[in-house]
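[recover] target loaded
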């Protein structure tokens, strides 16, 4: 008979895996955003693009790609959709025609006011203390940095 180690002893226990916890947390939190973003006509990835642009505009596609840690092939359809609904414009940069500049339209800029309601609504739905969420954000940022540092290493 095979004895099964306890969760505390088993290094392969699903419940102990960081990747599993991050995956479930990500899906759960994005699920909270979905109904909040729906009235704005945004998906969560589109919301991230808009957050970047509300912070600074214009941005090149290359800059947006780096900020969002998305390859241009993934970013392009998001930008096309946001352009088709009238929230942004893409045009060749006047400073460097090789660059595609992304700017907010007046409608996209005005949407920021509505988006100000999203963070407090997410915090309320999570029912977690703001300090706890800040600490979690700091921890996740360290995890991201550590994983990025180890990419490509054996």
């Amino acid at each position: 008979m095979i004895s099964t180690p306890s969760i505390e002893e088993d290094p392969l226990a699903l419940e102990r895996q960081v990747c599993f916890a991050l995956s479930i947390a990500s899906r759960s939190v994005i699920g909270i955003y979905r109904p909040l973003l729906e009235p704005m006509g945004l998906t969560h990835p589109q919301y991230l693009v808009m957050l970047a642009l509300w912070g600074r505009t214009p941005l090149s596609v290359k800059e947006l790609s780096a900020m969002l840690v998305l390859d241009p092939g993934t970013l392009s359809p998001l930008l096309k959709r946001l352009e088709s609904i009238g929230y942004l414009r893409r045009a060749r940069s006047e400073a460097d025609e090789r660059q595609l500049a992304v700017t907010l339209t007046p409608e996209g800029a005005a949407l920021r006011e509505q988006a100000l309601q999203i963070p407090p609504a997410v915090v309320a739905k999570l029912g977690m203390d703001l300090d706890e969420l800040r600490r979690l954000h700091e921890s996740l940022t360290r995890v991201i940095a550590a994983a990025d540092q180890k990419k490509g290493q054996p």
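[recover] notes: Residues 16-143 form a domain with the Arc Repressor Mutant, subunit A fold (CATH 1.10.10.10).
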